[in-house]
Amino acid sequence: MIYVQKTQVGRIGLEEHEGALTTLYFETDRVPPDSIVGETGFLREAFRQLEAYLAGELVFFTLNLAPSGTPFMMRIWELLDGIPYGREASYRQIAEASGNIRAVRAVGSACRRNPLPVFIPCHRVVGSDGHLTGYRGGLAIKHALLDLESRNRKKLCGED
Fold first, then answer.
1. Using CA atoms, how far apart are residues 130 and 149, in angstroms rounded to an integer?
2. Of 50, 122, 125, 146, which residue is the catalytic one?
3. Backbone phi and psi for residue 158, each to the nearest 5 degrees, phi listed first
């Protein structure tokens, strides 16, 4: 079931399957035509947490996530989840952490195919020189998410 709602970063659709969040759709994403649109308690809670995050009030999501991907993608998404709120890591650092320093492009591919951006924070991955690189929702959203986290890191995490 998919539920769509307007947020601070545009219209977002969230998809649930058997009590787990499976996909986030940005306005520019194509929603499968056979999707069932509706609202559930789980999806309302997912949007409540997303809105709290976008308001700078939430660091960690407490939702059951069920992304679908290859074992390599799943490993990369697990590593992305380990990037602290308000911090960034390079594609190279993620490749190193995965045990394969030569997998930089594959890390980029896994980020592009992340079905749950924001919830699995691929926006925290930047180029080795610190520049922003591609993001499925667009660089403006990636920049907005990084800026939001940077502004709120001290307040929410007790760091500077």
1. 16
2. 122
3. 70, 25
Give the separation between CA 143 and CA 160, rounded to whole angstroms: 19
Mind listing the pLDDT tens digit for each residue in 103-159? 999 999 999 999 999 999 999 999 988 888 888 899 999 999 999 999 988 877 876
Which residues 6+ apart lie within 8 Å of 128 measured at CB? Answer: 90, 91, 92
Which phi and psi (to 5°) does residue 132 adopt?
Answer: -75, 135
The beta-strand segments (E) located in the chain are 2-7, 10-17, 20-25, 89-90, 125-126
Say which residue the tokens 């035509």 belong to.
33
Rg (CA), the chain: 15
Enter the pTM of the model. 0.93
Q: What are phi and psi of 64, to 5 degrees?
A: -75, 120
Average pLDDT, the chain: 94
Per the CB < 8 A criterion, the answer to whether 133 and 126 are in contact is yes
- Which structural domains are found in the chain, ordered by start? 2-54 (no CATH), 71-157 (1.10.10.10)
111 catalytic? Reply is: no
